[in-house]
Design brief:
The chain has 320 residues and is α/β, with parallel strands linked by helices. Helix content is 46%, strand content 15%.
Length: 320
């Protein structure tokens, strides 16, 4: 069959359009959430992203807490991909990332931060705003202190960096565990913290309307945290958390020296990180949008509309 010159041109244009579309960057309208994995030192690091990574739009890196994953940022990703590029990785052993055994991977905050740092480097991200919550704070602040010029700003959501922000009542037996790592304390933590009811409590405690909090949160977390070997891994992370406190002075110095513009949104009823932790940031930062909310540890579950609005304003005012 002989094709006319016009037909060949049309086929060529059609193929070009398909090729551009297939790589995902035909235009800037990529606000929908997408999913993928990045191989980092032999591990598959799962991530969610929204927005165009190849545009000049400001970038947000979203670092999750315990016992969650990038799932906790689902509403932020869905809402802000129209104007910004966002990426939320799962740490090794969490969410849908690889779950290597303790013999294959050292579960410490130093090591997790190194893995996520390499993930960001491999993704070509050299300038970004870090959003940190719970475990995301010690992971993210390690990265920020190591690469202060890469971190354009911070969004802090119940992400602690101050000793007064550690609730002795909320941390309870974990504080004893740091002093004496016994099987009895491990059993107590497993039964009370790593249980389905324990996870549900973390999401609903301190909320205004517990019945409105999505049950998928603790059901998904419980499923992932019930895999063989997970309790031992999480106990290692809990035991290592004491080393974060030793780095607090260094992170506070990083804040004072670099003065990253910061949006702080903090659930005031958090049983683990009380408002005293939020107040610490006000001492060290000159440019901070400070918001204390009447909710619990996972503030996005009850205050997503407000937090997303504040994030959009923050990104507009500081980085566009």
């Amino acid at each position: 069959m002989v094709l006319s010159k016009h037909t060949v041109i049309l086929f060529s244009l059609f193929a070009l359009i398909l090729g551009i579309a297939s790589n995902g960057y035909a235009n800037d309208n990529l606000q929908g959430v997408r999913y993928g994995t990045e191989k980092v030192d032999g591990l598959d690091i799962f991530f969610r992203e929204a927005g165009n990574p190849q545009s000049n739009k400001p970038t947000l890196v979203l670092l999750h807490g315990f016992p969650s994953s990038s799932h906790q940022y689902r509403e932020v990703l869905a809402a802000l991909g129209d104007e910004f590029y966002l990426i939320a990785p799962d740490y090794p052993g969490y969410g849908d990332s690889s779950f290597p055994s303790k013999k294959e991977y050292t579960y410490t905050f130093d090591n997790v931060a190194n893995t996520i740092d390499r993930f960001l480097i491999q993704r070509g991200l050299n300038r970004y705003v870090l959003m940190i919550q719970d475990f995301g704070a010690p992971v993210g602040l390690r990265i920020a202190a190591k690469h202060p010029k890469k971190v354009a700003g911070l969004v802090v959501m119940n992400g602690n960096a101050y000793e007064e922000g550690i609730s002795k009542q909320g941390w309870g037996k974990v504080l004893d565990y740091w002093k004496n790592r016994t099987p009895e304390l491990e059993e107590h933590i497993i039964d009370n913290v790593f249980s389905l009811e324990g996870f549900r409590w973390q999401y609903t405690h301190g909320t205004r309307n517990p019945d409105a909090i999505l049950p998928d949160n603790w059901n998904l977390d419980y499923m992932k945290m019930s895999r063989p070997g997970q309790h031992e891994v999480q106990l290692d992370m809990f035991f290592d958390y004491q080393n974060n406190l030793k780095k607090y002075p260094n992170w506070q110095q990083y804040l004072r020296d670099n003065q990253p513009p910061t949006l702080l949104v903090w659930g005031k009823n958090d049983a683990f990180f009380p408002v005293a932790g939020a107040e610490g940031y006000k001492r060290d930062l000159n440019d901070i949008d400070y918001n204390i909310l009447d909710t619990g540890h996972f503030a996005l579950e009850e205050e997503a509309p407000f937090i997303i609005k504040k994030m959009r304003e923050f990104m507009h005012n500081k980085f566009k």
